[in-house]
Amino acid sequence: MGQKTHPIGFRLGITREWDAYWFDEKNFAEKLAEDITLRSYIKQRLKHAGVSRIVIERSGRNVTVTIHSSRPGVIIGRSGRDIAQLEEELRRLTGGKEVRVLISEIKRPELDAQLVAENIAQQIENRISFRRAMKQAVAAAMRMGAEGIRIKCSGRLGGAEMSRKEQYLQGRVPLQTLRADIDYGFATAYTVYGTIGVKVWICRGEVLQRRSARERGS
Description:
The protein has 218 residues and is an alpha/beta fold. The protein has helices at 7-10, 28-45, 72-76, 81-93, 113-125, 130-143, 207-217, and strands spanning 20-21, 51-59, 62-69, 98-105, 148-155, 164-171, 180-191, 194-206. The chain is built from seven helices and eight strands. The longest helix has 18 residues, at 28-45.
């Protein structure tokens, strides 16, 4: 069997940045556990806001949380009321640390693997055919300019007796090419038959090509 590495972990420091910016030799485990608590709380509280990625930066007792979302208006609320309430809730979770929340808008959610995976999982939970959901996601990503997309669903698909895997692949998704900008996302659909795992890989082109084009332009 071929062993597969995580596409994002494989590219850290090359084409992908970290999701946490801090280091603490003494209290590393404590702060890591706090990061996990913050991330799971934000994902649960803002599950309808299209949250793809949460970046946490620390400096002393100051914590900056950057939320990458396709629907920033849902998080901010009227005249920033909701975001102020969220900051207060996170402050209580961290034991009184100064928490600042920043919002980064995702312009093209069709090219964000995590959002695509969560959208397919939600459709499966709403009893929409998994094949239809996968085909629509593939078509939308290719229409928005993706070089390639691969979607895999695993579990008791369509309520079948035995679990199986089905996948759709269009274009190119070179997982071993480090310069390729590969985005990866995973979501779980909770159905009456059991859980169905959804994995999505999206190739958005090559990073070095984009850099050299920018350099030529400047």
